[in-house]
């Protein structure tokens, strides 16, 4: 290097580092210079929550459609059943009452022995009723004093059938140990010339079968009043008066409604069967 050559500081620094200076970088810097040329391109991930939410909404929609369709089919089936069968409620009447004993013993203990006949009629041509055992309770009509109870065994009531049900009404247990007030009222009723007015309650469960349709068991109560029992004066039993007896059937939910079990297209559901 001659004396006329000039050495610049930048050249000296580059020579000291053992490298040569390259071209000056562009200004402003490019995206490749800022983030690196090898950085992978950004690809947004799909929103999975939206797809799941859409599937859930679709399931809810189809479930609602299926439920509404089944309800519509059940209503149509109920109308068809009513038009085809026109089911009626069974009828009950008290047709016989014989009193062997009905008096108060020492200590106000009630002694009752009554034979009861109840006639049940099924007016339907295609409806069959199946009854559980029927619990019978007898009270005085005026004061509601318990007189006795009994049970009628379970039975099947066929179409267009009339069945006579027999029961023995007796008084046993502490329920028939009357207090002084109840005993005084009952003694007054027993001394009446027309006898003592009685009220009957029959409680049971019944299910109906109308062709291929079957209903679940429904709790029913039959209430009968207008019955008069004559107290026997000796060992001979007396006959009670049942000419004015009237019985009324009530169900626990709807007295005119029975739900029938039906299958349509492999699906089980309940069909309302109205009993007029």
Automatic annotation (TrEMBL):
Q: Where in the cell is it found?
A: Membrane
- Where would I find the Late embryogenesis abundant protein LEA-2 subgroup domain in this sequence? 118-224
Q: Where are the transmembrane segments?
A: 55-85
Q: Name one GO cellular component term.
A: plasma membrane
InterPro entries per the record? LEA_2, NDR1-like
Q: What are the protein's UniProt keywords? A: Membrane, Transmembrane, Transmembrane helix
- Membrane topology per the record? Single-pass membrane protein
Keyword flag Transmembrane helix: yes
KW Transmembrane helix (keyword) present:
yes
What Gene Ontology biological process does one annotation of this record name? defense response to other organism
Q: What is this protein called?
A: Late embryogenesis abundant protein LEA-2 subgroup domain-containing protein
* Organism expressing this protein natively: Turnera subulata
Q: What is the lineage of its organism?
A: Eukaryota, Viridiplantae, Streptophyta, Embryophyta, Tracheophyta
């Amino acid at each position: 290097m001659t004396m006329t050559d000039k050495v610049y500081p930048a050249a000296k620094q580059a020579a000291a580092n053992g490298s040569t200076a390259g071209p000056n970088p562009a200004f402003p810097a490019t995206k490749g210079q800022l983030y690196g040329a090898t950085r992978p391109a950004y690809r947004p991930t799909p929103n999975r929550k939206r797809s799941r939410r859409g599937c859930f909404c679709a399931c809810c929609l189809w479930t609602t459609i299926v439920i509404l369709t089944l309800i519509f089919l059940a209503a149509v089936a109920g109308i068809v059943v009513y038009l085809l069968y026109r089911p009626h409620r069974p009828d009950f009447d008290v047709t016989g009452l014989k009193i062997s004993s009905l008096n108060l013993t020492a200590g106000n203990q009630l002694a009752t022995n009554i034979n009861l006949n109840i006639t049940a009629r099924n007016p339907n041509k295609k409806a069959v009723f199946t009854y559980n055992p029927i619990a019978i309770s007898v009270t005085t009509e005026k004061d509601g004093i318990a007189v006795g109870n009994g049970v009628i065994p379970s039975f099947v009531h066929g179409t267009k059938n009339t069945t006579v049900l027999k029961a023995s009404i007796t008084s046993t247990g502490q329920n028939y140990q009357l207090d002084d007030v109840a005993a005084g009222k009952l003694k007054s009723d027993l001394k009446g010339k027309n006898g003592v007015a009685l009220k009957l309650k029959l409680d049971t469960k019944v299910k109906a079968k109308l062709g291929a349709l079957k209903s679940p068991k429904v709790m029913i109560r039959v209430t009968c009043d207008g019955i008069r029992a004559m107290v026997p004066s000796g060992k001979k039993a007396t006959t009670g008066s049942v000419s004015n007896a009237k019985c009324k059937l009530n169900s626990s939910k709807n007295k005119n409604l029975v739900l029938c079990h039906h299958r349509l297209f492999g699906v089980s559901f309940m069909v309302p069967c109205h009993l007029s």
